[in-house]
Amino acid sequence: MRTTSFLLDHDVLIDAGTGVMDLTVSELMLIDHVFITHSHLDHIASIPFLVDTAGWMRDKPLTLHATEETLNILKQHIFNWLIWPDFNRLPTPDQPFMVYAPFSLGETIALGGRKITSLPANHVVPAVGFQLDSGRHSLVFSGDTTTNDALWVEVNKIENLSHLIIETAFSNKELDLAVAAKHLVPCLLVEELKKLKKSAHIYVTHLKPGEVELIMCEIERDAVEFKPRMLQNNQIFEF
User: Fold this and answer.
1) To pair with 193 at 20 to 30 A between CA atoms, which of 78, 83, 109, 200?
2) Whole-prediction pTM
3) DSSP for 180-200?
4) CATH number of the domain at 108-230, out of 3.60.15.10, 3.40.50.80, 3.65.10.10, 3.40.1160.10?
5) What is the tens place of the pLDDT at every residue in 179-225?
6) What angle do CA 22, 229, 178 make, to 5 degrees?
């Protein structure tokens, strides 16, 4: 089972779930930046192994980009010498394998002609989504979120929007669980997509294993006007 991770070109990861481990060591060495939506394990699981595997073979540290709140969680609960070594201080504090780069909600970070902007998310821990802007087109990833008017205010400002990847974690029968866990179900997804005023190719991700077919049947039935498709492993987008 693979969890959330997107590779932007060859050098930037958006989240670092277990899908990262599909990459070769040579590919891992090329990753310079990881942008993290939030601290849940399915989105950060590969970061410790990525640093441990490739850190000593690189000539500069890996940069972790996230909100201050998310970085503090990683410092306290992952890179704390109890769960994993503190690679922000190894091999030395002056030349670590990993550095932290906090950003504020709505901040845009430019990397080699690409712009990555954090977007509002509504989850049980501090969380964001991201706009990835190539200059020609933009892809938006919602991150983990439930109903979220603030997200659509920002998305509807994006003139070059071409792709939207949005989560739907549970089937409609688990609405109460989804509300408690701050995720979407198909009936909530439909109401969220009605807030989108732009044309975009829509892909659904974060479907719970064992319910994939049911969730997609409900989405295809209830959200047919939006033509959503399920995001596939190893899917490639050009934008």
Assistant:
1) 109
2) 0.96
3) HHT---HHHHHHHHTT--S--
4) 3.60.15.10
5) 999 999 999 999 999 999 999 999 999 999 999 999 999 999 999 99
6) 85
